[in-house]
Amino acid sequence: MLIMVAMVLFVFFLSLAVMLISSLLAKKAIRDREKCSPFECGFDPKGSARLPFSLRFFLIAIIFLIFDVEITLLLPLVIVSKLITAHTWAATGIFFLLILLIGLYHEWNQGALEWSV
Questions:
Q1: CATH code, 68
Q2: pLDDT 10s digits, 57-109
Q3: Of 63, 62, 43, 45, whose CA–CA distance to 53 is shortest?
Q4: 111 Rama class: left (phi>0) / alpha (psi -120 to 50) / beta
Q5: pLDDT tens digit string along 31-58?
Q6: Burial code of 20-46, b = ≥16 C-beta within 10 A, e = fewer?
Q7: Angle between helices 86-110 and 55-80 (to 10 degrees)
Q8: Which branch of life, at top level (predicted)?
Q9: Distance (Å, rounded) from C-alpha 16 to C-alpha 9?
Q10: How would DSSP label each residue in 4-57?
């Protein structure tokens, strides 16, 4: 227990020392207005908040998130494959991918993947 506390304190003080040294040795740049302003996805933070937003960009972003979540749901199937039978594991994975492919086909058929204006 004492060794673990000592290691945590050592890591804490080591990281504190590295941050202190890097802030002392860092090149001090002249700050201008553009570098200090926040950048929010290409929008001007000082402009109007009522600018039109591209619906196509939003749909592509949502489709990307769906397939990103799909990957995170498929990865645990490999770990679970050791606990359940191969037929159950394969059927679950194929069923899940089939649902996603049908959804992708529907999005493609509806024209949500077309980027032209």
A1: 1.20.58
A2: 777 888 888 888 888 888 887 777 778 777 788 888 888 889 888 988 888 89
A3: 43
A4: left
A5: 666 666 666 565 666 666 666 767 777 7
A6: eeeeeeeeeeeeeeeeeeeeeeeeeee
A7: 170
A8: Eukaryota
A9: 10
A10: HHHHHHHHHHHHHHHHHHHHHHS--PPP-HHHHS--BTTB-TTS-S-----HHH
Residues 6+ apart with CB under 8 A from 113: 60, 63, 107
Asked whether 45 and 38 are in contact (CB, 8 A), the reply is yes
Residue with tokens 């908040």: 49
117: in domain:
no
Q: Is 116 within a domain?
A: no
Between CA 70 and CA 67 the distance in angstroms is 5
> Which residues constitute the domain of residue 62?
2-110
Query: What is the tally of structural domains in the chain?
Result: 1
Q: Phi and psi (nearest 5°) for 54?
A: -70, 120
Identify residue 49 by its one-letter amino acid code. Answer: A
Inside any domain, residue 115: no
